Amino acid sequence: MSRKLFAVVGDPVSHSLSPLIHNRWIAEAGLDAHYAAIHLQSANAAADIRALAANYAGLNVTLPHKMAALEAAVNATPEARAIGAANTLARENGSNWTAYNTDVAGFSDALTAALGGSRASLKVVMIGAGGAARAAVASLAATGARLVIVNRSVANAQALAADLAPGAETGELSQLAAFAETADVVVNSASLGHAGGSLPDLPAGRGRPFLDLSYGKAAAQILDVAAKSGWTPHDGLPMLVGQAAAAFRIWFGISPDEAGALKACREAVAART
User: Fold this and answer.
1) pTM listed for this prediction
2) How far apart are CA 223 and CA 214, in angstroms?
3) For residue range 98-131, what is the model confidence (pLDDT) as tens digits?
4) Which residues carry out catalysis?
């Protein structure tokens, strides 16, 4: 049987820790498989991703191609369709992709880690209304969390709420402090750290968790600001590993060592900084 090939597809993609994670798990399970990174700059990403099914058994898809991944698939889970994006593709029925969104499971893992367990009756303030926010909001809505979405564009926040969390409050980014005053946790899904942006002022954190869905340099500045205001900072590496583990189970039917992979990722990030 020929070796099965897997990859992460994105633009940029050279920074991705996904090959580190998946090749570690493939080796631990003794599988005849390999996981690579594919840098895809494309005017027609859906067609290009569709064509990869000729050679690859599964793909992870990262920015900016998650919507194209859903479009490339013949079948999709209801969750991926509701979110409007896919980050995991599995080749099924010949050369057809089936689309999944394992970011939902990954976010759930990251939130549970940040909270230290209990998720009952949470009030969550979500910063941002983009692709990462959609997966997070879908996860939160499923658990009945009380949700506030703040964004530079209130219209985008309202559209996200209407799609995935009809009971959510919405507001401008400038209202963050007022909403965060009574929050159990604040989640940043916006690319503020990537763009060199900054947070509006936060109220005193009193040790409450502040979760940034990025990691490494992109999260460091925002988490530093949160920590100085008394919040307990958490980065997005548990989400990265959690979504990867969900994809690995889809492809191989095996639950991998998430703790070992998270430790390896932390060491890799530390070595870069």
Assistant:
1) 0.94
2) 10
3) 999 999 999 999 999 999 877 778 999 999 998 8
4) 66
